[in-house]
Design brief:
Oligomer: single chain
Number of domains: 1
Number of strands: 0
Structural class: mainly alpha
Radius of gyration: 15 Å
Order of helices and strands: HHHHH
Shape: flat
Length: about 100
């Protein structure tokens, strides 16, 4: 347990800082902070509950709402040159949510 906890915290912060360095901060933060939404979606599967359609709708609407607030109406652009940073942010979110 100790090893898993330490590795999880280290992995989260490692991938977070890699994402912040290799991608724009706004987009990387939006991806990295997917972990609350992933907890909602994955906890229903782990606890033997059924993942219902409204779980998915609420999680997606939360993500879209956060994206609109962060982008400020200007839009969020995806550029392939930042793909390693976006991937690191996604790994960061998955590390924290599991």
């Amino acid at each position: 347990m100790w090893l898993l906890g330490i590795a999880g915290l280290f992995g989260y912060h490692f991938f977070y800082f890699v994402a912040m360095r290799r991608a724009p901060v706004v987009e990387a933060s939006l991806i990295a902070y997917l972990w609350p939404l992933l907890i909602v979606l994955l906890s229903s599967l782990l606890l033997g509950e059924k993942l219902r359609w409204y779980h998915v709708v609420v999680a997606l609407s939360g993500f879209v709402g956060a994206g609109l607030l962060i982008a400020g109406g200007g839009g969020v652009d995806f550029e392939w040159r930042y793909a390693p940073g976006y991937l690191a942010a996604l790994v960061c979110a998955l590390t924290w949510s599991t």
